[in-house]
Each structure stands twice: as C-alpha cells, then as structure tokens.
Amino acid sequence: MKRKIKILEVNKAYFPHTGGIETLVKQYSEELGKYKNIEVRTLVCRDGIGKTCSENINGVRLTRAGSFGTYFSCPVSVSFLKIFRKMSANADIIHIHVPFPPADLALLLSGYSGKVIVSWHSDVVKQKKLLTLYKPLMKYLLNRADCILVATEGHIDGSEFLPEYRHKCHVLPYGINPADYLNIQKIPFLTEKATNPESIKVFFTGRLVYYKGVDVLINAFRNVRNNCELFIAGTGILESKLKEKVRKYGLNDRVHFLGFLPDKQLKQAFSDCDIFVLPSVERSEAFGIVQLEAMIYGKPVINTNLPSGVPYVSIHETTGITVQPYDSHELAKAINILRKNKNLRENLGKNGQKRILEYFNEKNIIQDLYKIITDEVTI
C-alpha cells in the first residue's frame, strides 16, 4: 500500500478569523483531508498577541504559531519560522497562500527541498514600503514554486509579477458548496429591518476598509430613487466615517449598518436582498467570494471593472452589471436600472446561479486540486 501524501497548508490566519482566503484555506484543509491517501496539516499564526497552540477543528490538525502582534497587515512571529522548519521536514508538498511574507522567508530558511504549490491571491497593493523589502523573497518563492494556482486569468493579467510565470500558472477558481446555501431556512432578514418593507433591498458585505469602496456606494445612493434601501454588513476602521457620511447626506432612513453578521444571518441576508453590490476600487479585491454567495441565491451582482479576478466572476450583462471603480454616478445608474426592472433582475440572477453550479461548485474544484496534487507527487 502506498503511503499517504503529506501536505502542509500555510496561511497567515484561520477560522474563526473572517476573510475569503481564510474560508478557502479551511475548505482545502477539510476537504483534502477526506481523501484516504492524503494527510493534511495546517500552519497559521495567531490573531493578535499569544503563544503557540495546537487544535483539531472539524478534523483539521491545526497549529497556530505564537505572535507578537500584527504590523502592515502581517503577523510578527519568530516561532512560525521554527515550527515551519519542523513541520516541513515531513511534508511532500507545502501549499503556501500569498501574500504572506513570513511564509516566503520560512521556506527560504527551512532547507526544504520538496514540492511547493503557491496559491496567489493578490499582489501587494497598498504597502509599497513593505513590497520593496518583500520583492526579493517573493521572486524567490515564484521561482521556487512548482505550480502557481490563480482563481482567474485576471489574476495573471492584472498582476505586476505573474505574467512571466504564466507557464507555471494553473487556473483553479474559488468555490462554494451550493447545499450549504440553498438548504438554509429563508426568512425576511433584511425586510424586517427596512424602513419600508416594500423597498428594493441592496446589500453589501465585507470589511469597511479603503479598497472595498463603500464610500463610493454611499455617494451613489444619493442618486438612487427613494424606493431603494441599502444594507451594509461588516465592520472596519472606516465604520465611523461611513456612518457620519450617511448622516451628513440625510440617508439614515435608507442606509442601514448591520455590523458583523454570523454565518447563518449572512446567508439569510443574501437570500433576502434584491441586488448585491461589490463596489471595490483597488485590485486588492482579487476575486470577491461574496459574489458567489449572492449568485447562488439568484441575485444580480453589480461589481467593478478591476484589473483582477472580480469581473471574471460575475459577467457584465450576463449575471449582473460591471461599472468603473470610483464612479459613483455609473454605480447609481446601475442600481437604478436593476431597481426598476424586476425581470432583468430575475434573468441575471438565474444566469448567475447557473454559472455557480457549472464553474464554481466546491466539489468539482476540490477534485481538480486533488488531481494537481497527485500529479505533482508520486509516492
């Protein structure tokens, strides 16, 4: 009997930390571990300050390396380097999710000589000073990688670094399990919070940070007709400024801040909305998994034409409307078009759900990932 393929999944954080990449790493760790010929270990850093700890979460053998805190959106951890070296010694494949500079450094220092798969989720966009220091490590990792996974062709075309490594790149979309969404109990979650229950409900969820473009969305809502209400789920450093903007514009009765929503309530919000908007303004938004969550419920998506994977997920005039980033007038126009045309909303929504089932079904994507892994390693 052939021995198991040992995989080390590496990322900066893990559930219950919220984020699209953390959700993906959780999905990979759990689903790959179900194959009888694969053994998965997962290494991340602790959120905030804390000592190293080990856990078993839903069958995943997880190690959280101790951390001194987070700087430039990156955990600072000496123990991560030591633990990486120890765990990598037994791995057939190391699967690193980037950008995460400590993982690049850990690989360089570890002496590991086995196979390396890199999942490239985004370029470093905002932290220019960090990028200057990080670039040599990043180039080392890209040269060292046996395979580079990207979620869309847009990840390659919109990247400053990936085009020269196109020969190593393999498109593997992010996916969701449709049953996790379609089997929930549907309730009028947003309708119950609306000022006018008959209004068209526009929904956004995500961190309230610069690249999400929520300020542009609020500006747009000044030019959206009164039978439309906006629901914003999420928290972040811009929350107070966004709430002040809503008050300044006199939109308190039409714009609702929901705060953090647990998974069940978030799904109910997706199910109850009429339009989903992802108004992101920078390519830090590399994919937008939330688009999948809206589309599986048959909701039309308004997204932005970023040089990333975002417009590859929901297609302009097929599953929604794509507008230019930072353009509040074009965004308002798109909302108004969908607001007044129920048939268009339904047709775009049906196309979106069909697209999810065909291209973004988690089951098929995990099977493709398994094939990539087994092609890379022969035991």
Highlighted features:
single chain, six-stranded parallel beta sheet, 379 residues, alpha/beta, globular
Structural notes for this entry:
The radius of gyration is 21 Å and the shape is globular. The chain has 14 helices and 18 strands. Helix 3 packs across helix 4. The model has no long low-confidence stretch (mean pLDDT 93). It is of the alpha/beta class and 379 residues long.
Morphology call? globular
* Average pLDDT level: 93
Q: State the helicity in percent bands.
A: 25-40%
The biggest beta sheet reads:
8 strands, mixed
Question: How is the quaternary structure best described?
Answer: single chain
Number of strands: 18
Strand order, main sheet: write it out: 4-5-2-1-9-10-11-12
Straight-line distance between termini: 10 Å
| Number of H- or I-type helical stretches | 14
Radius of gyration (CA) equals 21 Å
What topology does this entry show?
Layout: E1 5-10, H1 20-32, E2 38-45, E3 49-50, E4 53-57, E5 60-65, E6 67-68, E7 70-71, E8 74-75, H2 78-88, E9 93-98, H3 101-110, E10 115-120, H4 128-144, E11 147-150, H5 153-157, E12 169-171, H6 178-182, E13 200-205, H7 214-221, E14 228-233, H8 239-248, E15 255-259, H9 263-272, E16 275-277, H10 289-295, E17 301-304, H11 310-313, E18 320-323, H12 328-339, H13 342-359, H14 362-376
Parallel strand pairs: 1-2, 1-9, 2-5, 9-10, 10-11, 11-12, 13-14, 13-16, 14-15, 16-17, 17-18
Antiparallel strand pairs: 3-6, 4-5, 7-8
